[in-house]
Amino acid sequence: MANAWNNTRLSGKRVLQMNQPTDRKQRSRNKILDAALRTFKQQGYVGSGVDGIMEAAGMTSGAFYGHFSSKSDVLGEAFVHSFIEDQAAMNGALSECETPEQLIEIMQKYLSSKHCEQVEEGCSIPPLLSDLCRADAETKARFEEVIQWMVAQFQERSDNEFSRQEILATLALCFGGLSLARAVNSPALSRQILSACRKQLPIQKCD
């Protein structure tokens, strides 16, 4: 029995040692994806470079090519990476909604000046939306899944009080409105845009 236990421990140790490089590589890959996402949010895809991404990741530029073949290669995966994080965050927020009114409150906060100022920490969809328009079919398909998931969650949390059309219009107003509010130079105009969007949210116009 002692020999059997020792063999099991040795075997487990070998498995662990074999898995460590893979785990380290995945952690490094995720680190690059996180840095790429932050950089794309700050500077846009066109304004970002491999050197800047790797500097943000705290790694050498040469290490980039051990994970990705080009900047365009990392774009699609960074989108998917961000969607997973956003989906988890939204799932947590929606899980606390018990009434349609609470759902409306979440969307009101989404269109707040505070969220507008949080480009890096906020939702990744508005700052990356224009790049997504030029993304490959696989990335667009993943994004479509996220939108479909959002619609289904909104309908479920509101007991189907909001129609699919109203929810899609609300999402479009939130993503587009936040992007527009961030694009102008005037803080006053930015606040006016956000206020106008909050007042026009389709999901709060239901009786």
UniProtKB/TrEMBL annotation:
- List UniProt keywords, sorted A-Z: DNA-binding, Transcription, Transcription regulation
Membrane-spanning regions, if any? Answer: none
* DNA-binding region(s), residue ranges: 49-68
Q: GO molecular function of the protein, one example?
A: DNA binding
The answer, when asked if Transcription is one of the entry's keywords, is yes
**SUPFAM superfamilies the record matches:** Homeodomain-like, Tetracyclin repressor-like, C-terminal domain
User: Where are the coiled-coil regions?
Assistant: none
Question: What's the protein called, per UniProt?
Answer: TetR/AcrR family transcriptional regulator
